[in-house]
Amino acid sequence: MAALGRAWRALLRPRGARAGPAGRRGVRALRRSPVRVLQPQSARESPRGPQESPQPPPPPAVERGAAAPGLWYEKAAPGDRRLGKVVTIAKSKKFRDNHGKVLLEGHRLIKDALEAGAVPQTLFFSTVGHLKLLPEAEIKRASLVKVKFEDIKIWSDLVTPQGLLGIFSKPDPAKMSYPAAQLANSLPLLLICDNIRDPGNLGTILRSAAGAGCEKVLLTKGCVDPWEPKVLRAGMGAHFRVPIIASLDWESVPTTLPAGTQVCVADNKDPDAAAGTAPASPKAPVKSSPQAAPEHQDEEGAAGIPELAAQHYYEDWAQAPVAVVIGGETHGLSPAALRLAASTGGKRLLIPVVPGVDSLNSAIAAGIVLFEGKRQLLWRHKQDDRQKLPVPG
């Protein structure tokens, strides 16, 4: 047997090679098998023979929503930081301006936005049930991400979050589809906001403008961003019921108004007050005296501030089309607003208050003047209709 093994090794030894240690190493090298390359499991044959490759499963982080078959959403893994990052950026005015994105929160606001034609990009929700309250065809256009309610609570701007956040493309008023009821009740009444810097006040003013049936709202430079979360919350959906044109300079305001618009300003300076009466409170929502807006004196120089005829807000003044300017509580009306009103034959509209009482909040003043303007315009419209009726013979 040993002789047979030696003979076999001699046959394997290359010709002329010695049977020393080096020769033995050569034999071991010849005995090595080549490396076998393993194919993926799906391409290998099982012991039972070749099988068909299975269809690739959907990504493990994607699930099918139970609220609507065919509606896919991504389930965020624990510790996913995208929600905090995206929401933080969306709350930045600089980001909103540079990238054209806004943050909406809550069922009512998001539903109003979708129905008005706003384009959703990403929706974050805590339970699939939240999707049932939204139009399915619209939310399919967005990336849906399911996150924990605790994560939404951390980044929510609400005291009691609903578990629903949305990142939308910044709406373009010219491309929005406003509710039919809103369009049917729209009046030739416009609102111009001048230096409204408090988010809660601006949101309330926008809500009043939508309720009064304003044709549009113009925001001049110096007003707070209408897409700031606090403004959206106070507006209660008004952003998607009335066109809002923001960041206007006063030179471009006249081109944004309908032809023949008369511009009036809300004021708290009593026209019946005796000469020498102390000037209005510095916290008044709107003012027309040079002393009322000292921050504008240097920039306006000797141009001066025009005097406007004054009357009470409940007297006749609303002739279509008409625009009302509401000034901020801190800085009041700008001289540019007063000059625009004077150039159109506008008036100062006084809301009288009890002597000694500080001026009204700008949002309250806006509501009073706008709804009075609505009343006068509707009354005038009825009078015109009566004049068109045939006289009985």
UniProtKB/TrEMBL annotation:
GO biological process, one term: methylation
Molecular function in Gene Ontology: RNA binding; RNA methyltransferase activity
Keywords: Methyltransferase, rRNA processing, Transferase
CDD domains, per database record: SpoU-like_RNMTL1
Species of the source: Tychaedon coryphoeus (Karoo scrub-robin)
Taxonomic lineage: Eukaryota, Metazoa, Chordata, Craniata, Vertebrata
Highest taxon above the source species: Eukaryota
UniProt key word Phosphoprotein: no
UniProt protein name: MRM3 methyltransferase
Residue ranges that the Swiss-Prot or TrEMBL entry lists as coiled coil: none
SMART domains: SpoU_sub_bind
